[in-house]
Design goal:
The chain is an alpha+beta fold. 41% of the residues lie in helices and 19% in strands. Strands 1-4-5-9-8-7-6 form a seven-stranded mixed sheet, sandwiched between helices. Helix 1 runs parallel beside helix 4 and helix 5 crosses helix 10. The mean pLDDT is 87.
Length: 344
């Protein structure tokens, strides 16, 4: 038995020395040290030995196993080292070469404008509210003083899914939902950014899908002067401290009185140019005092609570701010257009 063990050790070490790959080493390990290997068979035959021979033979078996295992590990390390050296020889790295620049992205100009507006109003104490883009007719129209058959619905040609479900045409439903959730109590001060949808032909100034940001303030003793002051701060922060604003009477079903806001042209300073069509003013957004009917439907008492609301299109603001002449640039993913807005 002792001679057999010495013979197995010599065979295993010879095969280990001849191995050139890790797979070959693993085959040797399984063949000699595995459960079905010859060394294991020797161990099973130790029951036939006398009590005096068993300890000596057990120690010899362990010596053979350890010798084979130790040489397997040494040979594996040698093969791995040789493989690394061969790879380094064929893949030499020249550390003197200039590094490869990593292309970095940047905020989309529309995203940048939206975040700038959000930061401005958050700084004024507003919260950002969101709502579903697939909306109920009730919240999109009826809760905003636009009952079925109201002629103003024709101003917003809508994508209806069913008779009572549609893609929202503005973010005003978020205002209606927020007022309803508050159950006629406490102040509200929110802005509602999000995508809206209208059946429109896409051209340089129109799109069937666009962004909108609306604002809503509900509290006691809210006046039109509060709306004007808020919009004045917005205009000066977004377009420069020398911007002036003017409010013109208008009509929106959910506000009364309603106004449209113009800012003095940033190109000519109000003197008149092609951008402002010679008027010195550029229309920027609409707003007004929340209609008493809207307050009542949301559970507020119009004699106790008042409010103002406004809505703007971030695309229009971005186009004026950056001098963009076609709204489709925001959606066509032209890398040349987007690269112009990378920040240093």
């Amino acid at each position: 038995m002792e001679a057999r063990l010495k013979e197995l050790q010599a065979e295993a070490l010879a095969k280990i020395a001849a191995a050139g790959e890790l797979k070959e080493l693993n085959d040797v390990r399984v063949a000699y040290l595995g459960k079905k290997g010859p060394i294991t068979e020797v161990l099973r035959g130790m029951g036939k030995l006398s009590a005096e021979e068993r300890p000596r033979m057990g120690a010899l078996v362990n010596e053979v196993r350890e010798a084979i295992q130790s040489r397997l590990e040494e040979k594996a390390a040698e093969i791995e080292k040789a493989a690394i050296e061969a790879q380094l020889a064929t893949e030499t790295i020249d550390v003197t070469l200039p590094g490869r620049p990593v292309a970095t992205g940047a905020h989309h100009p529309l995203t940048a404008v939206i975040e700038e507006i959000e930061d401005l109003f958050i700084g004024m104490g507003y919260e950002v509210a969101e709502g579903p883009e697939v909306e109920k007719d009730y919240y999109n129209f009826e809760a905003l003083n636009l009952p079925k058959g109201h002629p103003a619905r024709d101003m917003q040609d809508s994508f209806y899914i069913t008779e009572e479900v549609l893609l929202r045409t503005h973010t005003s439903p978020v205002q209606a939902r927020t007022m309803e959730k508050n159950e006629g109590k406490g102040p509200i001060k929110i802005i509602c950014p999000g995508k809206v949808y209208r059946r429109d032909d896409d051209d340089a100034t129109h799109s069937h899908q666009f962004m909108q940001i609306e604002g809503l303030v509900i509290d006691k003793n809210i006046r039109m002067s509060d709306l004007k002051g808020t919009l004045q701060v917005f205009a000066k922060k977004m377009f420069g401290s020398d911007r002036e604003i003017r409010l013109r009477p208008s009509f929106f079903p959910f506000t009364e009185p309603s106004v449209e806001m113009d800012i003095s042209c940033m190109m000519c300073g109000g003197k008149g140019c092609g951008t402002c069509k010679g008027t010195g003013w550029i229309e920027i957004l609409g707003g007004g005092m929340v209609h008493p009917n809207v307050l009542r439907m949301a559970g507020y008492d119009p004699t106790e609570y008042q409010g103002f609301a406004f809505g703007m299109g971030p695309e229009r603001i971005a186009m004026l701010k950056y001098g963009i002449d076609d709204i489709r640039h925001f959606y066509t993913n032209d890398i040349r257009f987007l690269q112009q807005f990378k920040r240093a």
